[in-house]
Design a protein that fits this description.
four-stranded antiparallel beta sheet, Ribosomal Protein S5, domain 2, 42% helix, eight-stranded mixed beta sheet, binds (3R)-3-hydroxy-3-methyl-5-(phosphonooxy)pentanoic acid, Alpha-Beta Plaits, globular, alpha+beta
Length: 334
Amino acid sequence: MKAIAPGKIILSGEHAVVYGKPALVMAVNRYAEAGISGNGDARVHFELVDFDENSSLTIQALRELKGRLVRNYQMFLNGELGIREVLKKPFHLFEFLFITFLDGVQIKLDRGVNIRLHSDIPVGSGMGSSAATLLSVLRGLAEYFGLDFKPDDYFNYGFEAEKLQHGRPSGVDPYVSLHGGFVRFQNKRAQKLPMPEMPFYIVNTGVPQSTTGECVAHVAEHFAHSPIWDDFEAVADEMQRALLKSDLVEVKRWVRANNRLLTTIGVVPASIQEFISHIEKSGGAAKIAGAGAIKGDRAGMVLVFADESSNELISRYGFQVMNVKGDPLGARIV
Ligand code: PMV
């Protein structure tokens, strides 16, 4: 049995959403996939196909791992551990999810479980790949065990696990991957909006050297109590209006404003800012889509509103254009 869950693109409001401001977010047709089946050896097997990694633990070992991860996370909250040190291996995130789910729904396993994970969402690049993988596993497990899971159940389990990866996340990634569509997300709730009809490019500038958790922690250090988040909110409001009217001139205006704010909080590397300036000079607009980066010269996905003339510019920088469209459905069984 297989479940999939989509990745996402943030059109406006990354980082501000951590401070209770709105984000405009679209689920896109790149998917994480979880294949779930039974096995006879009373262990839980994870296969991370894209990382060529495997793990196999007993329920007892999973509970011990969970204890260690919870302690690590508490140390992170106390400022004693960096967020990158909470999860030591990629599959720890999914093992934590599995055992938290199993104990939460109080199921006693009478045989082992195989969970095979695969994704075509670029990892660590602002497209919500870990949240999509978490949601595909949850959707698959709820189906496999025949549970009547409500949206809040999926969200809460996904969010608890995501914290170990991102530190203090807003919850936007698991929400959008679960529900699909285009939404205005704020304080763990969202309003569904019509899918924007205007064409844009998603340009992959490469995997940032810093993680989402590190970017969020860095921004918190300098801007946690700044009034700048009101400016982010005003920009998201204007962008929402412009997108719903399909008014490209206005959308570009607010994308530029959004980029200036993101540059101010320090998540747009100089080399990416240079690329964005070139796009602006040729009449377009662009901004990072996701956490961005606080070191190195790559920033994951960049959202570009421009005509085809920018293609030459994009390839001059050696960046890849990703062809994506909206996913209206969210996590589901396939
Ligand atoms: O994981 P990313 O790179 O898509 O970033 C998510 C958006 C942030 O606002 C930076 C973090 C969050 O939890 O909302």
